[in-house]
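Lay summary. Proteins are chains of building blocks that fold into shapes, and those shapes determine what they do. In this project we predict the shape from the chain. Here is one chain we studied, written as its sequence of building blocks.
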Amino acid sequence: MRRLVLALAVLVPGLSFAAGEADAPKNIEWTFSGPFGTFDLPAARRGLQVYLDVCSTCHSLRYVAYRNLTEIGLTEDQAKAIAASHEVRDGPDETGAYFMRPAGLAEKFVPPFANEQAARFANGGAYPPDLSLMYKARPNGANYVYSLLTGYGEPPADVELAPGMNYNPYFPGHQTAMPQPLLDDIVQYADGTPATLDNMARDVVQFLAWAAEPNLPTRHRMGFGVLIYLIILGGLLFAVKKQVWRDQH
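And here is the predicted shape, written in a compact code that computers can read:
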């Protein structure tokens, strides 16, 4: 029975040997929060670099196309270069054969594994989730992702980690199969920003928030415009009502 439980601990990242629920995430101020929020595009571009250099080795981004990267400030040539560094299956050609070719701007991000079975085999039974909607998949998603990325540490003396698990108080059960992905200077930012754990975690959250809701700033602007319209309309209706009542008296 104990062997079965330990095996499940490796196969199921959420299975816990630690008591209690996940700790409440840290409270961080994000530029995209609130009714007037917008994305920090330089930070989102750095977050893309973190994703490409670190996260993409295990995690897919299935719902984002390479052409969308121009929306955070990349040139078309830069987006093409990122796409072309991955291959996609195409065909059949005139002989009926399928072949591999460099990905183009129209393609979605190429996943690191061909299928779920390959992903689990490469990760000790754990299945790395797709990150396209990770920001929205959890309540308080931005703070959760930031806290998870910065929350790794040594377990308390009374906590016994299962084989292959890592201690993180912000993960349900306080144990996760994902090793700590970010360490200081694990990437070298093209713009010279210090690649501290805090900066990288903030930047990749900006990128994942954009990936999940690229139209967020547009919606905020539309909402603000509608609010102004309603205020003006309300003022006009109030003025008309006062005039009507004045004429009747």
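What the prediction tells us: The mean pLDDT is 85.
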